[in-house]
Amino acid sequence: MRIRNQSQNPGMLEKVLTVVVGTVVLVAAFMFSLVILAVAVVLGLMIWGYFWWKTREIRQIMREQRERQQSQPRQQPAPGGHVIEGEAIVVEEIHEQTQATNPQNRSNPPEK
How far is residue 82's CA from residue 70's CA, in Å, rounded to a whole number? Predict the structure, then answer.
């Protein structure tokens, strides 16, 4: 029985097996990368489609507003001044009067 040394050159069979195994590993890695790429593309398209579907009403409103603005004549700014356009929302605030702010109730503390 011959004991083979580690320092000996690999034989022809080992070289062929190395090439075959390396080729199989590269082909498998390429196939898996294609599958992962296809899944990523499909997921990306699904997310984009969901976003597109959910924002369709907003896009329609913006399109109508743009068309209305284009059909209306533009207001000319006042000579020598600036025009600031905007909207205001009035919010009703209710202030509670406390003992410290109401001078009539300072002598009579509230009962608990």
Answer: 21
Is the separation of the CB atoms in 82 and 76 below 8 Å? no
Instruction: Give the mean pLDDT per block of 10 residues along the chain (112 residues).
Output: 64 93 97 97 98 95 90 71 79 69 56 55
Dig out the tokens for 48 from the structure. 């984009």
Helices marked H in the chain: 12-54, 56-71
Query: Tokens for 91?
Result: 């919010």
End-to-end, the C-alpha distance of the chain in Å comes to 105
Least Cα distance to 76 among 67, 85, 68 occurs for 85
Decide if 99 contacts 109 (C-beta within 8 A). yes
Q: How far is CA 60 from CA 21, 53, 57, 71, 94, in A?
A: 58, 12, 5, 17, 38
Segment holding 8, helix H or strand E: none
